[in-house]
Design brief:
single chain, 227 residues, Rossmann fold, 5 strands, 44% helix
């Protein structure tokens, strides 16, 4: 059985990985499940961590593109034949299943797999089928804040945390408005692409991107004026 680290690029899995290596623990493979929809900073950060540890971080990809999924038809259930659409806010994410869970199976099944879940989120540390899931941060009693402090001491905090609370896909409808504002402000090309998706598919049940855009423009204008 191999010892595989599930590396997301977030603060907890990064801190766990570095702690494991510093302790001389066995790490056979480090896996990053690339959703293909990460913020550009994430890819730069993975390169930085890879250089820092002097180890390869294996990057897996889904078998199908995101567009093939969201514009594809539902194959079963009451909505069979309808467009799958963007992931829903209130339900599990099909893209997480396809781009993360299914994409890494060839590396994880039958192995010890280490997940970066901090001790103050211990309720998320649950058994997983076909693997031996290990939650070291929970075992060690290390919190999210302690993970951030650990990375800060090494100047290795993911730059995304300056703008978002959680890392993830740039078009995720579950992300907060702070993250969407970051997308609008710094990645107009991606924001425009998200608006194109919204023309064909529902993005969020509670608001429209055009309304958020007006709000973000005004907030950015006020910030520029104050400076």
């Amino acid at each position: 059985m191999k010892h595989v680290v599930s590396f997301s690029g977030g603060k907890d899995s990064t801190a766990m990985l570095l702690m494991m290596l510093e302790k001389g623990m066995q790490v056979d493979q480090i896996i990053f499940a690339d959703t293909t929809l990460e913020f550009p900073e994430m890819y730069e950060y993975i390169d930085k961590i890879e250089n820092y540890i002097g180890r390869e971080i294996i990057r897996t990809k889904p078998k199908k593109s995101f567009d093939e999924w969201c514009y594809g038809e539902i194959t079963r259930g009451k909505r069979k034949g309808e467009l799958r659409g963007l992931p829903l806010v209130l339900f599990g994410c099909y893209w997480m299943r396809e781009s993360k869970v299914n994409a890494v199976k060839s590396y994880t099944i039958g192995n010890y797999v280490y997940f970066g879940i901090a001790s103050d989120e211990y309720k998320r540390a649950k058994p997983k089928p076909d693997i031996t899931a290990i939650y070291l941060l929970v075992e060690w009693g290390i919190t999210e804040i302690e993970c951030l402090d650990y990375l800060r001491e090494r100047d290795l905090i993911n730059p995304l945390y300056k703008h978002v609370k959680r890392t993830g896909c740039w078009l995720c409808p579950k992300q907060g408005k702070r993250s969407l504002k970051h997308l609008f402000t710094y990645y107009p090309e991606l924001w425009g692409k998200l608006k194109e998706y919204e023309k064909d598919l529902n993005f969020h049940p509670d608001y429209k991107l055009i309304d958020l855009e007006k709000r973000f423009k005004e907030e950015n204008k006020q910030l520029t004026f104050q400076r």
